[in-house]
Amino acid sequence: MPRPIQATIHPEALRANLARVRLAAHDARVWAVVKANAYGHGVARVFEGLRGADGFAVLDLSEAQSLRALDWRGPVLLLEGVFEQRDLELCSRLDLWHVVHTEAQIDMLSRHKTQLPQRVFLKMNSGMNRLGFAPERFRSAWARLNALPQVEEISLMTHFAHADDAVGVQAQMQVFHDTSHDLLGERSLANSAAVLRHGADPQVAADWVRPGIALYGSSPDHGLHNAAHWGLRPAMSLRSQLIGLQALKAGDEVGYGGLFKAPQAMYIGVVACGYADGYPRHAPSGTPVLVNGVRCQTVGRVSMDMLCVDLTPVPQASLGSEVTLWGQATAGQVLCIDEVAAAAGTLGYELMCALAPRVPVVVEASAESDRH
Ligand SMILES: *Cc1c(COP(=O)(O)O)cnc(C)c1O
């Protein structure tokens, strides 16, 4: 028998989260963002649950190729555009739309030989200072693209730095509007946080929204609102089992460095899950975990292949008892990945993306996919 650890992908949750985002996005079309191998879930594994999206947004050409191999004929957008000249040939061959954020990318387009003009998303740096044309360069970039026979349609795009916090999106919205209000083309501005928090403003939802994290059931502003508040369900569950039990006396230590000392006699369980599985090593004693669906806490240091749990809340736990590191227990109780991430000083984003290749992943069979 392999180690009992397994990740399960839930297509029903992906479908429900997509519907939740649509509800917040007015009539905007939805790019399902599946970069970073669908935030660690696997592009092919989320495809069934997310095929109701209007398009898929990716970073790597290989992800775009996977989508075409899955027979997705709809729009695919390269969020950072092309990296070198010959990438444009693949864009032509696979009919990929791509972001243009530098003059160098416009140069490449101007040299590209194609019969089929391409659709591009021109990106403005409206204040985040990561990718995009500064406002004073944006209009000349638009004019340059507009004059190219290789370009069929130009859409306008920007990205918010503060959609998830109290600063909000207003200042960047103003820059975007002032710079581009009279330019033709569809608009795309909002990530998950912007859709859920500010999507009621049709100018924020615009023509296309670009949710990622919300589709996977993690809250984009966890410190303020949890996933349940937003009506999001975990798309991934990481589950394992108890493979060892220890009866501790008061004063006994647990794990490397003896970081945890039993305050009284207690039972702990040893879980087949460690940092080599993608569980955060920085999760301190007290990080939440479900044993048989009951909320417990970790004790001691997370090691490469194991971690330990205080079994006080589940005296009936035994070898083989189910342990849910995040997501949904088989019996339905939920431990949001954001809570584990917060305990470890990071975000749900990082934990889901870091799921280790050694963890077997299965896609939950759903009533819906049986009908296809
Ligand atoms: C990753 C990304 C998104 C999705 O962001 P979430 O916070 O996961 O919703 C949207 N737009 C761009 C440009 C991105 O790179």
Would you write up a description of this structure?
The protein is of the alpha/beta class. It has 2 domains: 11-216, Alanine racemase (TIM Barrel, Alpha-Beta Barrel); 236-363, Beta Barrel (Lyase, Ornithine Decarboxylase, Chain A, domain 1). It is built from 14 helices and 19 strands. Strands 8-7-6-5-4-3-2-9 form an 8-stranded parallel sheet. It has a 6-stranded antiparallel barrel with strand order 10-13-16-15-14-17. Helix 5 (87-94) links the parallel strand 4 (76-78) and strand 5 (97-100). The longest helix has 14 residues, at 11-24. The radius of gyration is 23 Å and the shape is elongated.
Keywords, separated by commas or semicolons:
372 residues; alpha/beta; TIM Barrel; Lyase, Ornithine Decarboxylase, Chain A, domain 1; 8-stranded parallel β-sheet; 6-stranded antiparallel barrel; 29% helix; binds pyridoxal-5'-phosphate
